């Protein structure tokens, strides 16, 4: 290693260290603020307290929004996993023309401005006469989650050795059982990670949902932003700290079962 | 009749791939809920209030200095955000690839954990940091570097710092994925052949990692150009971006004509990024093959 190499390596480590601190800054701020005794966001907090965690329980509309968001995220992720896996199989195993176009098309909602998709769906549903906010939101959230599943599963299927299924059949397993015993377990890590990212994308979506809600169906991000604009107290920080803790647990479980490196592929 | 039946059973008919059927549910869903609504929106941007075909919306958009300023600001901020994530993300991806064990786990958690926290929460946390009585001002005042608080919140610099923070993992991860596929012996091999560090970086490392850079930059730019929540919380009404004007025209002003036109402009920018990046990526993979 020459001196230049050594300098380059040191600099890249220093930038990485800075990047990690930079990435975690908003999370650390949120956690600290959630334990403040003050009603405003002063840093460092004048004293510590759990009052914002208690106040969380007294905000039924926030909890209702959390419930709606979880409901939408779970259902849309399950639908996306089923439909997306089928599409990924078609993309990887099919021999028809336009497979690449199909792959680009199914992943493209990810790269398109969410706000524009929201506006387009708003006008489209109105034209069709679909006025039910819950169903509009659910259909929109399938569009949000599907690309995550297809992106991950196409990559996983491209690495999957399909001769294993033939081998299982040679050893006497009927075709459906071979799929169930060989293909499904082989894809389990891909299901887990794509499901997780799809779920998070749905939970976090604001720009599409904002056009499709009504007074009774507000998702968590919409309610949170509204809350921050109207009466900003650290209750939001308390809720977020709870979500960060959940995510940390999910990550630790993920790193033990799938491995962090496989999760981000 | 039997003639037609015989035709479908012919070899030409059998070439129809059964795997195509598996794609039907996705095609139907995305066709109905994504392609059709967007086509409808584009069509609407070419109609005037009476429904007649016209480009009046576009003429109004491109002749309004306020709109052009917003358009330029949107592109500049997206570009600066992408640049900041690249400057921080490229070396970080190398450090991540070189790290082992515990250190690698720590960097990976720093990348993934923020993805699980909502954009609203992160943007709001940054607005706390940038307040005039926030951490930065208190530190600088305490150290005696400044005499009075700097105005940080509501500035475009604050917006770029906040946005780059939220999009940084999407730059690091694709570059990291590409670095992991590079043969680690290439660098030393080039060195043995007498290549200096700069030659090795620009002729070996950089070209090999370029696909990751292009993928990451395209993703970050396309997200930054259409971000809505982050500018809403960090700069507010002070400097409008295109996405905020779109939301305003649909949610408050009910000016759907202008809203549709602005949406179409934003859509074209995003589509251009996708198309350009896929062409560049195809060229890059063709060159290496």
TrEMBL record, chain A:
Q: Where in the cell is it found?
A: Cell inner membrane; Cell membrane
List the transmembrane segments.
Answer: 12-43, 63-89, 101-122, 134-157, 178-201, 235-254
- Tell me the Pfam families matching this sequence: BPD_transp_1 (PF00528)
Question: By its UniProt entry, which PROSITE patterns does this protein fall under?
Answer: ABC_TM1, PROKAR_LIPOPROTEIN
InterPro entries with a match to the protein in the record: MetI-like (IPR000515), MetI-like_sf (IPR035906)
Superkingdom: Bacteria
Q: How would you describe this protein's topology in the membrane?
A: Multi-pass membrane protein
State the UniProt keywords alphabetically: Cell inner membrane, Cell membrane, Membrane, Transmembrane, Transmembrane helix, Transport
Gene3D superfamilies in alphabetical order = MetI-like
Stretches assigned to the ABC transmembrane type-1 domain: 66-254
The entry assigns this protein to a family as follows:
Belongs to the binding-protein-dependent transport system permease family.
- Name the chain's protein: ABC transporter permease
UniProtKB/TrEMBL annotation, chain B:
The membrane-spanning stretches of this chain are 20-43, 74-96, 108-129, 158-179, 208-230, 261-281
Identify the Gene3D superfamilies for this entry: MetI-like
Recorded hits in SUPFAM superfamilies, A to Z, give: MetI-like (SSF161098)
* Cellular location(s): Cell membrane
Give start and end of each ABC transmembrane type-1 domain: 71-280
| UniProt key word Transport | yes
Keyword annotations for this protein? Cell membrane, Membrane, Transmembrane, Transmembrane helix, Transport
**Coarse class of the protein's main subcellular location:** membrane
Query: Organism's domain of life?
Result: Bacteria
Pfam families, alphabetized: BPD_transp_1
What family is this?
Belongs to the binding-protein-dependent transport system permease family. CysTW subfamily.
What is the protein name for this chain?
ABC transporter permease
Q: Taxonomically, what lineage is the organism?
A: Bacteria, Pseudomonadati, Pseudomonadota, Alphaproteobacteria, Hyphomicrobiales
């Amino acid at each position: 290693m020459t001196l230049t190499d050594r300098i380059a390596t040191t600099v890249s480590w220093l930038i990485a260290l800075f990047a990690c601190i930079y990435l975690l800054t908003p999370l650390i701020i949120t956690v600290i603020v959630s334990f403040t005794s003050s009603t405003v966001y002063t840093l460092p907090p004048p004293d510590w307290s759990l009052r914002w965690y208690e106040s969380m329980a007294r905000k039924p509309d926030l909890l209702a929004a959390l419930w709606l968001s979880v409901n939408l995220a779970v259902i849309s992720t399950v639908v996306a996993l089923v439909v997306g896996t089928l599409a990924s199989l078609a993309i990887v195993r099919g021999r028809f023309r336009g497979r690449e176009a199909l792959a680009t098309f199914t992943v493209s909602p990810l790269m398109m401005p969410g706000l524009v998709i929201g506006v387009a769906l708003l006008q489209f549903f109105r034209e069709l006469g679909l006025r039910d906010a819950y169903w509009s939101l659910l259909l929109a959230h399938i569009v949000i989650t599907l690309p995550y599943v297809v992106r991950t599963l196409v990559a996983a299927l491209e690495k999957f050795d399909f001769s294993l299924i033939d081998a299982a059949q040679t050893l006497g397993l009927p075709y459906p059982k071979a799929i169930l015993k060989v293909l499904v377990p082989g894809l389990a890590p891909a299901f887990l990670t794509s499901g997780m990212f799809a779920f998070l994308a749905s939970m976090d979506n604001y720009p599409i949902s904002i056009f499709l809600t009504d007074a009774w169906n507000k998702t968590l991000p919409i309610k949170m932003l509204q809350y921050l604009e109207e009466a900003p107290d650290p209750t939001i920080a308390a809720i977020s700290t709870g979500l960060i803790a959940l995510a940390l647990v999910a990550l630790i479980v993920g790193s033990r079962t799938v491995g962090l490196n496989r999760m981000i592929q | 009749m039997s003639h037609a039946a015989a035709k479908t059973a012919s070899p030409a008919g059998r070439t129809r791939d059964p795997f195509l059927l598996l794609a039907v549910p996705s095609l139907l869903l995305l066709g109905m809920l994504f392609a059709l609504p967007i086509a409808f929106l584009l069509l609407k941007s070419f109609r005037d209030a009476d429904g007649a075909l016209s480009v009046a919306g576009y003429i109004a958009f491109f002749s309004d200095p306020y709109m052009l300023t917003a358009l330029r600001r949107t592109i500049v901020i997206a570009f600066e955000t992408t640049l900041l994530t690249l400057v921080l993300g490229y070396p970080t991806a190398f450090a991540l690839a070189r790290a082992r064990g515990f250190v690698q786990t720590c960097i990976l958690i720093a990348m993934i954990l923020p993805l699980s926290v909502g954009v609203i929460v992160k943007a709001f946390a940054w607005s706390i940091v940038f307040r005039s009585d926030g951490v930065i001002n208190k530190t600088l005042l305490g150290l005696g570097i400044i005499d009075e608080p700097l105005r940080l919140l509501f500035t475009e610099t604050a917006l770029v710092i906040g946005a780059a923070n939220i999009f940084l993992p999407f730059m690091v991860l694709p570059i990291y994925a590409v670095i992991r596929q590079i043969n680690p012996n290439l660098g030393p091999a080039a060195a043995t052949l007498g290549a200096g560090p700069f030659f090795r970086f620009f002729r070996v490392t950089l070209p090999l990692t370029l696909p990751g850079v292009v993928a990451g930059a395209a993703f970050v730019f396309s997200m930054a150009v259409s971000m809505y929540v982050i500018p809403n919380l960090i700069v507010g009404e002070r400097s409008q971006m295109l996405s905020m004007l779109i939301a305003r025209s649909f949610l408050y002003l009910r000016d759907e004509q202008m809203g549709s036109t602005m949406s179409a402009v934003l859509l074209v920018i995003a589509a251009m990024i996708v198309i350009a990046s896929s062409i560049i990526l195809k060229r890059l993979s063709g060159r290496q093959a």
